[in-house]
Amino acid sequence: MGSIVNYNLTEELEHGIYVSCLVRDLARDLMLGEQQVYQLQIAGMLHDIGKLRLTNYLYGNEEIASPLVIEEMKYVRMHPLLSYEILKARDYSGLILESVRYHHEDYDGTGFPSNLVGDEIPLGARIIRVCDVFAALTTDRPYRKRFEVDEAMSLMIDEIKHFDMRIFLAFENVVHRVGTKYQIRLAGDDTELGERYAFGGEELLGGKAIWQ
Ligand SMILES: [Fe+2]
């Protein structure tokens, strides 16, 4: 099905790790304490966890498996709340919960699910928002190639009303330092793995090749 609700666990993990690292650096630059930085790293990793439940829900039910796009949009917009509920049931901290729940709120009040405006949006959520958008723009998608760092930043400046300006300015410094260094590919090109491990396989197995 040509669905916008088509999440892939590998891609979600890659995105979570990428966002988590950017959030850590940005939170440190914003002078948050290490305990907060640590919790925001977790929030950055898990902010979209509700999407995976959505996928199971939509694909696990034949009647819902071919919904209209508008219907899917409704569910997609639920994902921050689903993420929040999943983590709340497991006693994640209040800082993590609010950061996850509001990570799609925009500074000008046009985000979702609660249309919060400005500083009504918890700080952690504002931090994740900036990192999340940058990570998405600089990652290949099935329907488009990734944007270069400069292109991504200028697209974000075009939409600057969505972001907390103080956080965005600090983020520019982070990007200047690390660019896309934290991007990770867990699937696809195994050349490097092959070079590092395949050749040494016999030694790793105590001199016994696996096919013996
Ligand atoms: Fe999200």
Can you give keywords for this protein?
Hypothetical protein af1432, mainly alpha, 212 residues, 0% strand
Structural description of this entry:
There is one protein chain. This protein is an all-alpha fold and about 210 residues long. The chain has a single domain (about 10-185), classed as Hypothetical protein af1432. The protein has helices at about 10-30, 35-45, 50-60, 70-75, 80-90, 95-100, 125-135, 150-160, 165-180, 190-200, 200-205. Helix 5 (about 80-90) runs antiparallel to helix 6. The longest helix has 21 residues, at about 10-30. The chain starts with 8 loop residues before the first helix and ends in an 8-residue tail after the last helix. It binds fe (ii) ion.
Number of helices: 11
CATH architecture: Orthogonal Bundle
Q: The CATH topology is what?
A: Hypothetical protein af1432
How are helices and strands ordered from N to C?
Answer: HHHHHHHHHHH
**Uncertain stretches:** none
Report the span from N to C terminus: 44 Å
Question: Overall 3D geometry?
Answer: globular
Helix vs. strand class: mainly alpha
Kindly state the number of beta strands.
Answer: 0
Q: What do the pLDDT scores average to? A: 86
Number of domains: 1
Full CATH superfamily name = Hypothetical protein af1432
Main sheet specs: none
Strand content: under 5%
Ligand set: fe (ii) ion
